[in-house]
Amino acid sequence: MTDWYFLKINKLPFNSRRAQIRSDFHHEIKYILNPDTTGEIFNGVAVNISGTGLCLYVSNHLSEGQGITIKSIFRDSYKSGIVRWSEKIVENIYRVGLIFTK
User: Fold this and answer.
1) Which own/partner pairs from 61-64 qualify as long-range (CB within 8 Å, at least 24 positions apart)?
2) What is the pLDDT of residues 37-63, one digit of tens each?
């Protein structure tokens, strides 16, 4: 899953209206959907982060308002968030904007 995001990484749009600056943050992640009904763990790739959110690529569609919990990359705890937007890049590849909730 890591090969495809390198094709798009330098083409991310700059948005000067952001409340916080995003920093490059290229890490594979694992996440679960909230509420967690199946226990299934999904994989994704984070590409940038700020104090309030994260942009990532995933292979399954996430709807606006969907809650997820990032289970890897954060040392001391999981990080929960809500999908702010989702954009289909190609078949089974989505770029997702996540706003942290805790």
Assistant:
1) 61/86, 61/88, 61/94, 62/86, 62/94, 62/96
2) 788 999 999 999 898 999 999 999 999
